[in-house]
Design brief:
alpha/beta; 7-stranded parallel β-sheet
Length: 354
């Protein structure tokens, strides 16, 4: 049986694409192992998926002054030693890395043992961890055409991001039943990320009465952000988050308002949902969401609003415009070769040992 080691962690975004590939790899006859940190978010997610998990020591390479910058390099060195031992024990045919600092020693150890490795970079520009790992990788996958200029020629492959197959199994009827909505009015889905977005939530609430004249709204407000004054409002359902029923909610969605995290927008593209992206501001991030959103705007997949300029009037006008153009947006999204990213990446993994 062929063996693959997957790695990546620190955030769910460094894990879920790996988990999206896992069922396909099993169907291809791969035995899957996962190397992550001892206590990172990836540990529980991977073990819940029934994949053999190994933890290694992991540090974080910071761009700012912190006393841990003096101790974490020793954790990285220890992690490299542990990864080296694990790879000798597992003897995989290939390593697939989704990034995060825990992945760096794994990719380096694979290179030392002449095991081919494939890195996937989700954002427009490579993060620090992937920048360190790329010289040791065999191939580097990316989501955006603009990313190719930042990657070594001969290694870079424009693939898109792995998408969970279950996203395509939703039922519009079940979504309507879950929310209590009717089939005769279009639905807007609003997602501000796992912790929600104060900017997006406030703009939606200020626009609510106007939007509800033409739409029904599912609003994922984030943990602790339920607006009790709006509970029971006709045509409006708010949830902190939705998990099991999310596929059904996607299936009934006609227009989506979302942050511009790489994995999220790849899912929006795969589902071909007309959308408005409101990226996290540069003041609160390294600016990757802004670049992600601008790329999708350039390709005709998305309308982009900046949160610093967000008002109820701007939001309402954008919703009306996108809904009016929904058919042409869907056609543009349907023409993207990135819709079959799973197969493209799977073929890359399979071919790398030939």
């Amino acid at each position: 049986m062929k063996k693959i080691v997957m790695t990546g962690g620190g955030t769910a975004g460094h894990v879920t694409p790996n988990l999206a590939l896992a069922p396909l790899l099993k169907e291809q006859g791969y035995e899957i192992y996962y190397i992550g940190s001892y206590t990172g978010i990836e540990k529980k997610l991977v073990e819940n998926a029934g994949i053999t998990y190994y933890g290694i020591s992991s540090g974080k390479l910071r761009r700012y002054h912190d006393w841990k910058n003096f101790t974490d390099p020793f954790r990285v060195i220890k992690g490299f030693s542990e990864a080296n031992q694990l790879l000798k024990h597992i003897q995989p045919d290939v390593v697939f890395s989704k990034g995060g600092f825990v992945s760096v020693p794994v990719v380096m150890a694979a290179a030392r043992q002449h095991i081919p490795s494939i890195i996937h970079e989700s954002d427009m520009t490579p993060g620090l961890a992937n920048k360190l790992a790329i010289p040791f990788a065999t191939k580097v996958c990316c989501n955006f055409p603009e990313t190719l200029q930042y990657l070594p020629e001969g290694k870079a492959v424009h693939t898109g991001s792995p998408i969970r197959r279950e996203l395509f199994t939703g039922s519009k009827e079940k979504g309507l039943e879950f929310t209590g909505f009717t089939a005769d009015k279009p639905v807007i889905l609003i997602m501000g990320g796992s912790i929600g977005s104060r900017f997006i939530n406030n703009a939606v609430w200020e626009s609510l009465d106007t939007l509800l004249a033409d739409f029904q709204i599912v609003h994922l407000v984030g943990k602790g952000n339920i607006n009790k004054d709006l509970e029971g409002k006709a045509g409006y359902q708010q949830y902190e988050f939705v998990s099991e029923q999310l596929n059904d909610v996607f299936a009934m969605t006609d227009l989506m308002i979302s942050r511009a995290g790489a994995n999220s927008i790849c899912e929006i593209l795969a589902l071909k949902i007309p959308n408005i992206l409101i990226p996290l501001s540069a003041a609160a991030s390294r600016g990757d969401q802004i670049l992600n959103a601008e790329s999708y705007k350039k390709q005709g997949f998305s309308t982009v609003l900046q949160e610093e300029e967000l008002t109820s009037e701007i939001l309402i006008n954008a919703v009306k415009d996108v809904y009016d153009r929904r058919d042409s947006i869907k056609e543009t999204m349907a023409s993207s070769h990135l819709l079959d990213a799973n197969s493209t990446i799977l073929k890359l993994i399979t071919d790398i040992n030939k």
